[in-house]
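[step 3/7] inverse_fold.run input=structure_tokens len=435
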């Protein structure tokens, strides 16, 4: 059986309670909570919230009606059109269920099914071509053949270390990589998983974007699966980006004491996509702590998480990890740790030729008429004379400041020495203004 066939079988819709892969009592409890919260609800509404097959919901409602936990408040021609309400005894059961957890949403899938689905969808590493990488970086002015350093790292699918002085596009390059990954095959992910009766919510609207195939495409491969269990959905490859706010707690299962559910750690949300640690070295945890946390997962491609009960779980660790830093790599961690990060790419300051290209590009983008004499004046006074290093971000910032000055003065934007001086004197504060 091929990987695609295995995945299709794994995602097959459960048409009766026995096929859910989890104890029926969990589905019953979820329906109790929905009815207690919403009051009257019909089978269609319950199926919409739980994402269970309507016949499965109807099977559960029939049992609950038989046990006098619900009553029919509105009948229809077919049972699936019936509207139900909790009885007094059913309300008591619902309160007991809410004491255990307040989760209301798609019914979870079994953790084993999640593991298998992630492994099947990441067994073959994503392959990007030089043309695709060049296209992803097309809006950036970068050294010649820079794409040859990025493409192999993406295809290797393990880790990438971007370093160099601030303001030269490390984060922008990482975001381009993320966009490149989201353009590859989408991925099937569940909204939530169940581990020993505990619910772990994976879906995060800030991370998971539903995949919408182009109208011109005829569904093929896994995007064209028929009869998929609605507890799974097809998403763009996820992209998680964090900066200095990252804590060790965000890399572990987080228990919400009020709702009594777990939220998946960031690396679990990023499975199948990319995890960017921006400003590496400025997190609330040390670089060594972070790398220590991920030594085994990176090499074994398996992570270990722990529930409050002490139960340890094995979770696939399948994403491209990108570290981006302005700090000197040797000041962050020792050589042994750096060797564990597979590929390292430096983004240095641009030379004058690249700076010229970036400035001209930004002039076109911001609709500022480019003036070569003005550019020569800027470079001579504010860089050569001032012995100031050029940074890729400077053209955008200088021109944005110039536009603000011109807008305030009510004049057309132009690259005159006077306006460039005024803009630079507002922007640069790290050294005395050159005379």
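[step 3/7] decode complete -> sequence:
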């Amino acid at each position: 059986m091929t990987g695609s066939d295995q995945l299709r079988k794994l995602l097959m819709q459960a048409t009766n309670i026995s096929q859910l892969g989890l104890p029926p009592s969990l589905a019953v409890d979820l329906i109790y909570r929905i009815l207690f919260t919403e009051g009257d609800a019909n089978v269609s509404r319950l199926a919409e919230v739980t994402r269970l097959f309507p016949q499965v919901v109807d099977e559960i409602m029939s049992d609950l009606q038989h046990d006098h936990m619900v009553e029919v408040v509105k009948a229809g021609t077919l049972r699936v059109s019936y509207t139900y309400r909790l009885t007094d005894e059913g309300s008591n059961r619902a309160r007991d269920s809410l004491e255990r957890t307040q989760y209301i949403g798609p019914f979870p899938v079994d953790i084993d099914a999640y593991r298998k689905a992630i492994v099947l969808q990441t067994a073959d590493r994503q392959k990007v071509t030089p043309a695709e990488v060049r296209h992803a970086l097309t809006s950036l002015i970068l050294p010649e053949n820079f794409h040859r350093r990025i493409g192999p790292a993406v295809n290797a699918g393990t880790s990438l270390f971007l370093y160099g002085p601030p303001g030269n596009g490390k984060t922008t390059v990482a975001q381009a990589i993320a966009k490149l990954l989201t353009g590859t095959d989408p991925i099937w992910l569940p909204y939530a998983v169940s581990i020993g009766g505990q619910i772990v919510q994976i879906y995060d609207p800030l991370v998971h974007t539903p995949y919408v195939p182009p109208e011109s495409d005829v569904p093929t491969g896994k995007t064209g699966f028929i009869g998929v269990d609605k507890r799974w959905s097809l998403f763009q490859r996820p992209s998680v980006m964090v900066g200095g706010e990252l804590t060790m707690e965000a890399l572990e299962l987080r228990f919400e004491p009020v709702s009594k559910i777990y939220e998946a750690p960031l690396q679990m949300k990023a499975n199948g996509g990319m995890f960017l640690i921006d400003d590496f070295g400025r997190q609330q945890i040390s670089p060594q702590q972070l790398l220590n946390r991920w030594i085994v997962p990176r090499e074994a491609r398996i992570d270990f998480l722990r529930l409050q009960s002490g139960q340890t779980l094995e979770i696939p660790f399948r994403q491209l990890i990108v570290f981006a830093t302005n700090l000197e790599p040797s000041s962050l961690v020792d050589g042994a740790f750096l060797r564990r990060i597979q590929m390292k790419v430096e983004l240095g300051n641009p030379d004058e030729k690249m700076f010229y290209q970036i400035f001209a590009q930004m002039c076109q983008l911001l609709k500022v008429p480019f003036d070569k004499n003005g550019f020569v004046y800027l470079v001579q006074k504010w860089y050569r004379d001032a012995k100031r290093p050029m940074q890729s971000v400077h053209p955008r910032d200088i021109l944005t400041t110039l536009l603000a000055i011109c807008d305030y003065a009510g004049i057309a934007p132009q690259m005159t020495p006077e306006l460039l001086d005024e803009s630079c004197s507002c922007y640069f504060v790290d050294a005395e203004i050159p005379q």
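[step 4/7] annotate
The first strand starts at residue 41 and ends at 42.
The radius of gyration is 28 Å.
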